[in-house]
Specification:
With about 350 residues, this protein is mainly β. The chain is built from 1 helix and 18 strands. Strand 17 and strand 18 form a beta hairpin.
Length: about 350
């Protein structure tokens, strides 16, 4: 028996374009004093990153697959296929990397190997919606002599930041100030620059304040106004807005604000014509406001949510937005009794 342990260097969340690093340890868990202890032989081990795409059959019609791309070797249990047995399609994968060949482990012995790979910058973000799913995994495959391949899958999350793909890092950085007493690997330096640039782009995009004011009315008159201070946020922020009912002609009994993810599929890939957009609610604020002149709300954007994106990678075009939804319940005006 062989135990395989995979540990991501700095957690399970990465930016597209960053370097994923993983330490993979192979152990023969039997004690040397055990009567059944014996050495174990592994023929090889390999690792590969892939992104799996899955669409809901109730909401999405996929284009016909190309039968010419069928790989007969994938059915062979001696061939390393990272997505074997998984639902959906593999839409993105990195080249496989061999960790070792012909490894012998004595009882109680362990060997560790380092795997690193740059995440493709042009891939979709991790997303689990009602219509489609994009899931990233690091798959480690190993094979004992005269045995089928065993797979270990390590899921992780990928975030895509608009504008980061088009940025070109300067080639000549010799004039940049550096500490000669510290040795820093090139991959770590690039990751640091990527993270700094992403932080800067996010700060610039989300710090812009632009007041958006909306009037709330119905057929009987004005109910009030709704104000939101900006329309671009980063995950983890609070969406803050205010209501003003002081100038309304119709009293408002109650309001409800929801923070929702909106998924829309290109019409040609919809299962039914005129199929409605699907929504997922992340947070909700509801308040009774009769005889209230002003009120406010704050909805946190969960860290597990996915920023807005659009994809078209051989699949249906998915447009995903995170936006507030507003429901206002207005009271009927009181009837005026007829005077004699």
């Amino acid at each position: 028996m062989i135990e395989v342990l995979a540990k991501l260097g700095r957690g399970p969340v990465f930016l597209a374009g960053e370097v994923l690093e993983c330490v993979i340890t192979f152990t023969n868990p039997l004690s040397a004093s055990s009567t059944s202890a014996s050495s174990e032989m592994l023929a090889w081990a390999s690792a590969q990153i892939h992104c799996q795409f899955h669409a809901s059959e109730n909401r999405v019609v996929l284009p016909p697959s190309d039968g010419s791309k069928h790989d007969v070797q994938a059915e062979n249990e001696t061939v390393f296929v990272p997505n074997r047995g998984e639902r959906g399609q593999c839409i993105l994968s990195t080249p496989p990397k061999i960790l070792f060949c012909d490894l012998r482990l004595d009882p109680g012995e362990s060997k560790s190997y380092s795997y690193s790979e740059t995440l493709p910058i042009d891939g979709p973000p991790s997303f689990r919606g009602q219509s489609v799913k994009y899931v990233y995994k690091l798959t480690i495959g190993c094979q004992r002599v005269n045995s089928p391949i065993k797979l270990l899958r390590v899921p992780f999350r990928v975030l895509v930041l608009h504008g980061l793909k088009d940025y070109q890092f300067p080639q000549d950085e010799a004039v940049a100030p550096s500490n000669p007493f510290l040795e820093e690997e090139e991959g770590l330096k690039k990751d640091s620059r990527l993270a700094d640039l992403a932080t800067e782009l996010l700060m610039v995009a989300t710090s812009r304040r632009s007041l958006h004011l909306y009037n709330i009315s119905n057929t009987r008159g004005k109910v009030g106004s709704f104000c939101i201070f900006k329309t671009v946020y980063k995950i983890g922020e609070d969406v803050i807005g205010t209501f003003n009912f002081s100038e309304g002609d119709i009293p408002c009994l109650q309001f409800s604000v929801s923070l929702q993810t909106e998924e829309s599929i290109q019409e040609e890939f919809q299962r039914r014509r005129g199929q409605p957009v699907s929504f997922t609610t992340h947070a909700r604020h509801q308040e009774a406001c009769l005889h209230t002149a002003q009120s406010s709300f704050s909805l946190p954007i969960p860290l597990s949510s996915t920023p807005g994106f659009t994809t078209n990678i051989g699949q249906p075009v998915l447009r995903q937005l995170l936006s507030p939804s507003l429901v206002v319940l207005a009271a009927d005006p009181p009837s005026c009794p007829q005077c004699p």
